[in-house]
Amino acid sequence: MAVYNPSEIEKKWQAFWDKNETYKVDIDTSKPKFYVLDMFPYPSGAGLHVGHPLGYIASDIYSRYKKLKGFNVLHPMGFDSFGLPAEQYAIQTGQHPAITTEKNIETYIGQMKNIGFGYDWSREIRTSSPEYYKWTQWIFMQLFNSWYNKDTDQAEDIETLEALFAKGGSAAANAVCEDELAEFTAEEWNALSEEEKYKTTLDYRLTYLSESMVNFCPELGMVLSNDEVKDGVSERGGYPVIQKKMRQWMMRITAYCDRLIDGLENVDWSHSLKEQQKNWIGRSQGASVKFPVAESDLLKERAFEGKVEVFTTRIDTIYGVSFMVLAPEHEWVDTLTTPEQKDAIEAYKLETQKRSELDRMSDVKTVSGAFTGSYCVNPVNGEQVPIWIADYVLAGYGTGAVMAVPSGDQRDWNFAKHFDLPIPAISDAQQNLEEAADASKEGKYINSGMINGMEYQPAVDTLISWIEENKVGKGKINYRLRDAVFARQRYWGEPVPVYFKENGLPYLVDESDLPIVLPEIDEYKPTETGEPPLGRAKGWKYVPQPPTPSPKGEGEFVSYDYELSTMPGWAGSSWYWYRYMDAKNDDAFASKEALDYWQDVDLYVGGTEHATGHLLYSRFWNKFLKDKGFVKQEEFAKKLINQGMIQGRSSFVYRVKNTEVPTFVSYGLRKQYETQRLHVDVNIVDNDILDVEAFKTTRLDVPENAEFILENGQYKCGSEVEKMSKSKYNVVNPDVLVDRYGADTLRLYEMFLGPLTEAKPWDTKGIEGTSRFLKKLWRLFFDQNGSSLLVDDKGTPEELKALHKAIKKVGADIEGFSFNTSVSNFMICVNELTDLKCHKKEILEQLLIIISPYAPHIAEELWARMGKEEGSITSQEFPAFNEEYLKEDEIEYPIQIGGKVRVKLSFPAETSKGDIEKAVLANDEVIKWMDGKPLRKIIVVPKRIVNVVV
RNA sequence: GCCGGGGUGGUGGAACUGGUAGACACGCAGGACUUAAAAUCCUGUGAGCCGAAACGCUCGUACGGGUUCGACCCCCGUCCCCGGUACCA
C-alpha cells in the first residue's frame, strides 16, 4: 500500500479491535478509575446524521486520552430503547416495537463502529430488555417502599413512618412530612387493621397513586409530563394538550427540591444548565397567609366557614391588599358567589374555559375578571376586601389564590385600574402610583400598621413572627416543580410491578417475580373501553407464589389484575449509568464491588435538551439510591459537557415564476427575475455550485428540458443555516463521509468545526482540510511510492520544539475541552515537521501517540508500520511535556530598573543584545512606569518592548 | 418581560483571560509539476496609505463612552443575535 488508504486500514483496525476486545475494561484497583459517559441515544429509524456523533467523538477522544494518561477508563454505550416512535410505527404497521427497535439498534451500532469508537461493547445495555428493566422495576419497588423524612432529610423505609404513627399519630409524621395528609392519634392508628394501616401509608410513599390534573394529549392518547409539553402542545407531534383529572402513579420528586438545588453547587456543570434546573424547580421564599372569609348570612346559610390561603413572596406588602383574587377553577368559587353575582361569575368561568391554554398564555395583556360578591378579612388589620376571580391567577401554582397588592405588583395594578379598585400606597418610595406599580423594596413603610417606618427586612421579620404567633400563617417556601407523573397509557414501556387486590389497593409484586415481562398483545392501541394497550393482554394476571387454588374452579389459581399503564420514557434512563458498571449482573443492578470501584460518572457528555427532564430525574433517583445506601455519591455526574447542536447549511435554487419550461436562475442573477426559492439537496451541491445534471435526474419535479440561467458557466446556489432535517434537504450522513474521506478525517473535522459546546453550522467543504492533514501525516512516514522515509536519528532542537509545543498544547486543550484548537495544533506540528523534513522515529512515535485519541485508525496503522507491536499504541503513555525544548530559543537578560528593582528578562533568541538595549532605552517611559511596581516578566518582540507583566 | 450565553476578515474560528488581534482551516487569486485532469507543492489574501523596492504608517474585534503605559478581554450605556422561561403571586 503506497498511499494513505483510509477505508482499507479503518476496516482492518475496527476488526482488530473487535477481535482483540481492545476496549474491554475490567475493575483494576491498581489504577485510578475514570468514567466517561455519553447520553445514550434513542435508536430512531432515521439513523445518525453528522450532528449526532459530535459528543460521542469528543467523549471518545477524552477517554482514549485518559487511558493514555494511566487511568482505567470505563466508556460504554447502550440504547434508550423504549419510546414512542417504535410504538406509533407498530400501531400503523402491526410490527412489534421490539423488532423495529432491534433493527434500528443494529443500524446505530454499525454506524458507530464505522466511526471507530472505543466503546466496551460487552457492557452494552438496552432499557427495553427484561434483564435491564428488571432493575428499573426493582427501583420502582424501592421507591414505593419509602417515604421522605424532612427531619432527617432523606428517604427512609416505610416502617420508620409506621413507627412514628404508632408513637405519635399523624402529627408526628406530618411534622416531618411536607403535606398535611390524614389526622389521627397514635391510639387510632394502633386500632387500625393492617389493611387500613397500609392504605394510610400509600399517600406518604415516594411513589403514590393520585387523582390529579394531568396533561393529557387526546391525539397521542397519553399523559405527558410538564417537560413533554411545549407551549400548550405536545413536544412530539405538536398536538393539543388538555388538562384532565386522572388517577395516576406519581413520583414524589418535590421531596428532593432543596437537595436538587443545593447539589448543583457541587457539580461542574455549565452555569446556564444549573440556572435552567434552578428555574425549573422554582424555589421561592415567602409566606402563606390565611384570610378568613367575612361572615355573611348567605355563607351561614350555606354552612361555609373557611379561610382563603394565599402564598406571597412579599408579606411586607400585606397592608396594601385591596382585594383578593381566586383562580376561576378554585374550589370555593361557587360557594362564595352571591346570587346577585352568579350570572357574571358563571359567564366569566365559561369564558375562561373556552379560551384554550394557548390563548391564555399568548394573550396576557387583556385584563378580565369578575366579582364574587363575598369579602374576606385581612388578618393584620381586620379590613374587609372583595374577593374576585380572574384568569391571571393560576389554579396550578401555590394555592390558586393571591392577595392583590396593586401598589406593589403590576398585574394587580392593571386589574385594579381596570375595575376601578383602590391602589393604596404602602411605602414612602412609591411615587407614581397613578402610572404604574412600584415593586421595589426601597423606602420606609407607610399606612402599614405594625411596620410603619420600617425598612424591608425588619418588616418581613416582624410580620412573619406576628402571623406565626397569631396562627394566621407562616413562613413558607414554594416550588414551581410538581410531582412527576409516572405512568403512560402506552404499550412500549416498562410494566409497573404492581397488582390490585379486591380491596382496590395496589400491592407490589414479589421481588422474586421480577422482571414482570411486557406481555404480547395483538394490537398496540388502547382498548375499546379506554384502557391502556396492556388491557389487551390475554391472561396476563399476577399469581402470587406459591399459587393458591381459586374457589372459582378446577386448576385455577388466585390471580390479580396488573397495573395496566407502563412507566414513562425517563424511567429507564434515570439510573442506566450504574448498569454499565456491571451490565450482566442478575442478582443486583450492579455488584457492590463494581459500585465501590466506579462510583460515579467523571465526565458526562450530552445535549442541553435534557436539562429539565432526564438530568433532573436522574439526579432525583440517584439521591434516593444514595439515601437507601445502594450507591455512594449524592450526585451521579461530576462534570457535564453539553455539546452544541450542529446545524445544517441548506442550499437553494431559484425558480423563475410563470415560465412554461421550468427555469432556474443562478444566485447572483436572481434579483433580475421574480423567483421562488426552493431547497435543494446539499449532497448535489459542491461549494455552492449545483451539479445541474444530478439535479435534473434526482428531482422528479424537474424535467429533462428544464432551463438554467448560469453565471460564469455555473449554477450558483444560495444558502442559509437551519436546523438539520430531512425536509430541508440538508442532512449529511456520516457514512457517506466515512466512505469518501475515512472515519479519522470525519472525527478530526467534527472537532475542528468549532468549540464543542457552541452551536455551529455543518459545512462539508471544510473537511478537505483535515483530509489533507492526514495525508501529510502519512507522508512523514512514506514517500509517494510508499517507500519508508523513517530514520533512527535523534531529533534536532527544532524538531523537538515542534513536537513538544504540540504535546503541551494538545494536553492542555483536551483537559480544557478545546478539541478544536488541538486539531489546529496537530496541523501546525505536522506542517513544521514537514518543513524540517523530519522522518525520525523518535519524534514520530510520540506524535502518533498524541494523535491517536483523535485519529485512532491511522495512528494504529503507522504505529504498526514502525515495527511496533500491533495494537500496543492504546497502552502507551501520553508523552510528558518537557519545557526545556521550548525554552531553548530564549535568552535571559538581567536588567536594572529605577535603581532598585532587578529583574531577569527573557527574549526570543533571534533578538540581539543591541536590539534589547535599544528597545529598553527607547522605551524610557515604560521603564519609568515600571519603577516601583511589582514585575513578573517583560515581553519583548524584536526591536520593541511590548509590555511588562508581574 | 425575566434568566443565561454571545457579537472578531468572504466563511468556520484562534488569541495562554489585560500584553505583536486574525493562529489553524475553508474559500479566493496567482504560480509550479502534468499532453490534460486529479492529486501535490509554493506565493498572496482585514481595510487603507506611502513608495520602484525594502523599511514603514493609519484605521480595525457590533455601537458610544470610561479605566489602564497597554483593552476582543475589565466598567457604564446602547443596538442586535441565540438558548431557556413566563400572568409563578
Give an overview in words.
α1 crosses α28, α22 (734-741) packs across α23 (743-752) and α25 runs parallel beside α27. With 950 residues, the protein is an alpha+beta fold. The chain is globular, with a radius of gyration of 35 Å. It is built from 31 helices and 35 strands. Strands 24, 25, 26, 29, 30 and 31 form a 6-stranded mixed beta sheet that branches. A 4-stranded parallel beta sheet has the order 2-1-22-23, with helices on one face. The protein has a 4-stranded antiparallel beta sheet with strand order 6-5-9-17. The structure holds one RNA strand of 89 nucleotides.
pLDDT under 50 segments (min length 5)? 895-904, 928-950
Mean pLDDT across every amino acid position? 86
Describe the global form.
globular
Cα(first) to Cα(last) distance is 55 Å
Give me the Rg, rounded. 35 Å
Class inferred from helices and paired strands? alpha+beta
Beta-strand segment tally: 35
Keywords:
950 residues, alpha+beta, six-stranded mixed sheet, four-stranded parallel sheet, 34% helix, globular, RNA-binding
